[in-house]
Amino acid sequence: MIPDHDTDAIQADISSLESKRQILKQIVDITKAIENMQDSLNAVLVLGVDSKDIPEDALNLYSSLSDNLRNLPVSRIKEYFNNLELIVKGQLDKILRYSGLDFSDNEGIEFISLSSDGSEINPFDLLDEFKRTAQTAVSLRVLLRKRGAATPGLPVPVSPATIKSQLQRLENQENQQRSKAREKILEMQEDVKGMLENPNYPDGMKQMLNGVVANLDRDVKLLEKGVSLNKLSFVMKSEDVVSVEEPNIELEEIEVIEIGGVEEDTADMSLSAAASRWLNSPWDVTWGDVTNNKKTR
Questions:
Q1: I need a surface site. Which of 27, 32, 58, 202 has the fewest CB within 10 A?
Q2: Helix (H/G/I), strand (E/B), else coil: 158
Q3: d(Cα 42, Cα 136) in Å, to the nearest integer?
Q4: Which helix (DSSP H) or strand (DSSP E) does residue 174 occupy?
């Protein structure tokens, strides 16, 4: 049994690790929003040109359409496309406003983290939904072109040059966020290594912490390869990692280590078992959630 004073120290270490994990989560959320805005604005650029001028790389979006969609009559495809076009037009101003934020500034982060217009959908969900809508609209334009139906470019309230400038700015901000993520992961790795050097930690917990160090090392390598931050071990559920497909990355390089431990009922769960459960939980689950049995059952 771990002495009470050692238990308090271990819990303090875990609380510090949890705090850094939540900061990393915010960085990932911001970076995902930036990636969605980049994809969205690139799709808007394609929507803004005549269908005969659609760039070659955008033609590949055709493969994302289901066979059912591809086989629809042209009139029905046009109907779907016109509906999506209306959605893009209606939300574009808001997307452009978000893409103009400075995410190195707390005010910009706070603005995008909170819904500013009283709507139920938060900005992160809105950006994800807009990206899918805009890319689907591009796919339908490609489909119509393949079926011999020309479509004019979508009137955009800003010039293509302005959008391209915004895209460059977003790319710079994405690189800044990725650097911040790497810095925070290295901090967490050093913290965990320090925990491993503590002689008061039981062997079972040290085994789990070795798994954490290995996963964080994997995360740093993925960042260096330019992989999406959504693939980080602290973001993904362990059962989802094996399905990740990234170009030019070997499976063994992305395999996350599931941090094992003994399953115990929450009522009499040991500190080691609680740590194991928390380390294997999605990162919206806090240490308090595990020990209070809120989200893990």
A1: 202
A2: coil
A3: 13
A4: helix 160-196
